[in-house]
Amino acid sequence: MRWLLLVCLIAWQRQGCHGAQTINMQLLQHWDNNWEGQFSVPLTSDVLGWELRIHFSTPVSGIQQWDGTWLQTGGTSGQDYVLLNLVDKGYHKAGTTMTIRMMGKFTGGTAPTATAEYIDLTGDSQTVPPLAIMTGVQATKYNYEEVLVKSLLFYEAQRSGKLPANNRVPWRNDSALNDKGSNNEDLTGGYYDAGDHVKFNFPMAYTTTMLAWGYLEWKDAYTQAGQHQQILDAIKWPLDYFIKCHVAPHELYVQVGDGGPDHGFWGRPEDMTMARPAFKITESRPGSDVAGETAAAMAAGSLVFKHINSTYSATLLTHARQLYDFATKYKGKYSDSVNQAAAYYRSGAYEDELGWAGVWLFQATGDRRYLTEAEAIRPTGAGWGDSWDDKTTYTDILLYKFTHKNEYKTDIEATFTSWMPGGSLPYTPGGMAYRLQWGALRYAVNMATAALFAADLNLHEHDYPSLLGSVQTLQNGPIIDQARVQACPHPVAGMNSETQAPIPTLCTGPWSVGQDDSYKDDRNDYVKNEVACDYNAAWQSGIAGLLHLALHNELPTDCK
């Protein structure tokens, strides 16, 4: 179980309320000892979360309402309650009136009046009910539901293309609607990579595979947090884009936008005017790594949607098969074929992606050819640290799941031995395994989530009962992250400075700290403050894994 503790890395602490006002309840009707009333809250700013602290003039009970989680406070008098918004009931536009209706029973001969303190929790960690309120399960130190939701909101903030009607990020609008291929193919959609607005498909495909894997393993966590549809949307958004990018069996667009001109522009994606060229791999300019990773993402996606949308699942699987064949027949590193990617996401090798793709295709099809080829090509030995560019340990875990061969177990054990205290990695004073300066927490989180997947296979889940490295609690999370989609001026957000972010909770880091645990909340320090889709991917799934364990009363002590 020691491996599980790697994922206990970050907990956002409550930052304080953004606004409060007193609202009186309008009594709509009463009969016998029943009453119905409503609170109407005029909104002067966009709201992402709210709370009502209500005091009734007389005891009430049996309350029915449809907007939040209800908690009685102030002892047993029956007069004091707190209503905390449900996840999907927390988002409202400035200039509207939020109406909250409820009904119940009252004691005595006079229908109740009520006064509530309305609190705007935008940016506050309490916008999601804690596990104990929702389920009765023993409360945990960390609000995993809140982290799960906010991490998904980050992906919604990173969307490119035409946004859907259920967009939950009020300052985002449609963007990059003219993204096209060299033959005028529609390449809209997908995720902006990081603080920039380039669509780098290699890390985006890795992100998609990891989100799908976490969903397939720990679906109940998303259901519990009220985010089942949202995680499906987060997975489908890039998959729809990858389908557009795969324009022929052996042709795949792998990047839209050029890092040089893009990084010279500090502004909203909605305001971009620079050229956004598209780059693809072909038989003469191959990219086995990105084609393999995209095949893995589509195969994993086909499993996600198999019983939800069988037609869509079949489409994904067709693309996955074609891309795998392309990747294995025309071998080469995509960053050797696409110079514009080399400066940002240079590939180290492609064998790990081919093994990763093969094992996912085996899961999706049952065809043992894919499993045999995955076993033949996968890198051997201990993994360096899995990420967008290295799937060694992830692949070993899945190969062990399907074969139970000792060679995979041996390599998995060697990997985690190197990550534990006394292994080959240095540790920060605060106890975090430190692999690399850039995205230091990213690597620790990635391996933590790999440990969760391994523990699900009964690999050392009880042999290591105490510390496995990385437990890092940030008492004050970052306010100024390096992400233009969040930080730049916007008439809805009302921000006019590069030094402010409209919604601090969508920051997803810091993802790097110094080896001495140092951190500075400075947007100009992009090493420590830039966000990225791949940074959040294993983190998202790891939090789902921890919430799953909490729901089954299996959470390690240090994660409670």
From TrEMBL:
Q: Which GO terms describe its molecular function?
A: cellulase activity; polysaccharide binding
The record's EC number reads 3.2.1.4
Which residue positions does the secretion signal occupy? 1-19
Please name the top-level EC class of this enzyme: hydrolase
Q: Does the keyword Chaperone apply?
A: no
Q: Which reaction equation describes what this protein catalyses?
A: Endohydrolysis of (1->4)-beta-D-glucosidic linkages in cellulose, lichenin and cereal beta-D-glucans
Domain annotation Glycoside hydrolase family: ranges: 144-539
Pfam families for the chain: Glyco_hydro_9
PROSITE patterns xrefs: GH9_3 (PS00698)
**Which GO terms fall under biological process for this protein?**
cellulose catabolic process
Q: Where is the active site?
A: 521, 530
Give the record's keywords alphabetically.
Carbohydrate metabolism, Cellulose degradation, Glycosidase, Hydrolase, Polysaccharide degradation, Signal
- Asked if the Swiss-Prot or TrEMBL record annotates the protein with the keyword Protein transport, the reply is no
Family statement: Belongs to the glycosyl hydrolase 9 (cellulase E) family.
Q: Which PANTHER family match?
A: ENDO-1,4-BETA-GLUCANASE
* Name this protein carries in UniProt: Endoglucanase
**UniProt source species:** Dreissena polymorpha
